[in-house]
Write a structure and sequence with these properties.
alpha+beta; four-stranded antiparallel sheet; two-stranded antiparallel sheet; 4 helices
Length: 103
């Protein structure tokens, strides 16, 4: 999430923060960049947020949750950048993440 925000692909959705989460949306450039990388960017539907940042309880850092987060993980898996462990939230980087981002 940090890298996607740094690149300007994700931005905070104004007036939706609830103190526990920060609501996120892809910028126009971010939606295009993610789509180029095989991410099925979910459409925002009247009042429905497609992503949010919340603090991971183990690492105490923001991670990307919601439909957009799931779509990015799916695209990373399809590209061979990560592997998921069945029945777990464990994700293993298998390489090529920088190549995927810099495409």
């Amino acid at each position: 999430m940090d890298e996607l925000v740094r690149r300007g692909w994700l931005e905070e959705a104004p007036a939706e923060a609830d103190g526990r989460r920060v609501y996120i949306r892809p910028s126009d450039a971010g939606a295009a960049a993610l789509a180029e990388r095989g991410v099925s960017v979910p459409a925002t539907r009247s009042g429905k947020t497609v992503a949010f940042g919340c603090t991971d309880w183990t690492e105490r850092r923001w991670h990307l949750g919601g439909a957009l987060g799931r779509a990015i993980v799916d695209a990373l898996e399809d590209a061979g950048c990560i592997e998921r462990t069945a029945g777990s939230r464990v994700v293993t980087l298998t390489g090529g993440l920088d190549r995927w981002l810099d495409r």
